[in-house]
Amino acid sequence: MRVAAAARIAFGCDQHMLAERGQIMTTERTAIRRRLAIRRTAHRPPWSGRKLGHGAIVAPLTATLVATVALGVGVTLARAERERRASGQRRARNRRFALLADERVGEGLRRMALGQLDVTIEVIEGRDGTLSPQKRVHEARKALKRLRALLRLVRDELGEQAYARESAIVREAGGRLARARDAEVLLSTMDGLVKRHPERLGRRRGVQRLRARLQIERDGAAELALSESVARAGTLEDLRALRARAGAWELADAGGIEAIEAALEHLYGTGRRRMRRAARAGGARGRKLHEWRKRVKDLRYAAEMLQRSDHEGAKLLRDRVGAKAGKRARRRANAKTEFIGEVARRADELGELLGEEHDLAVLADRVRSEAKATRASGAPGPGTRRALLGLIAKRRRRLRKRALRKGRSLYARKPNRFVRRMRAAATLGSLSRR
Questions:
Q1: Per-domain residue ranges of the chain
Q2: Which of 57, 116, 137, 417 has the fewest C-beta atoms under 10 angstroms from its C-beta?
Q3: pLDDT attached to residue 322
Q4: How far is CA 144 from CA 166, 302, 307, in A?
């Protein structure tokens, strides 16, 4: 047994010596021995380590560079998107057709004039390729109507000569688009009439032929109005010159609407007188209603211009009234601050009624003129014309009654009392800026 033990000790020593000399490799090495394995370069990890965690550095470096570039591009795109949104917000703010919360009346009217001129110029030039010719005509005419109402408000400050010159430019620009507008109105009015009376008109071939002709005329008129190079170039030149002059307007800024009160009183009083003339007109009522409608539109746009784009003035007034005030006091406070918006809303509703009545009158004139055309050209027959004219007359009578009833409510105050209410509401609306 002593011999066997000595033999084992000797074998172990020999095995250790051979392992150190690199002459044997054992498959049962410990973890420490695997890390101290022989024949390896200094500081070089074992093969298993290199296979698992020490691959080539080129691929990770490339991925890092790509991620860095992508991050830089993303930051650039995000910054560009923020700038684009901020620019769009500034543009919308500058073109808002209402007084801003911190804006005086004079500077606001000048800003609105420039904004409506910019809209008109861009639409006529066709910068937005997504708009149809009909939509372009509609937007340009709406901006020009707003601009004419604004010019009437600042008439006294501009002076008669300057007002006449600027008003003529705007009127002529709108007149060049009038034919396209009339063609659009004829088609939409015909569609509205057929929709209102589908059983009596929907199946008539004469109505279908007339509508087809109106649609062809509508499509051609809008494109023609916007494509005439000579007239278009002249219109744009006049509008750009007007914009340059409007940018130099020096309008009074007394803190309220004092500078335009006389013009506002005249505008309201003119509409009131034309309403009375229309009520007494009898057979000529259609023409008188149309003249009244123009002043109703002016009143609507004037109220929209003077209405603040926020409700800070109303909130401040409610705070002044106090939380303990009764319901009647709070209602009076709300009515005072919301008076301008109420005028704009009611004038808009009245203008729509008068506008539909006028459009039906234009359609009736067109139907009567079809009597001279031949059936081969697509003109409706006598029966279709009688049906159309009868339904048009019936609808116009209803619209006149409703318009006069709403008009008496809108124009119930005397002009001086109306202006006092507008002054009080405009002053309360501007309290937040003081």
A1: 95-248, 258-434
A2: 57
A3: 52
A4: 11, 14, 19
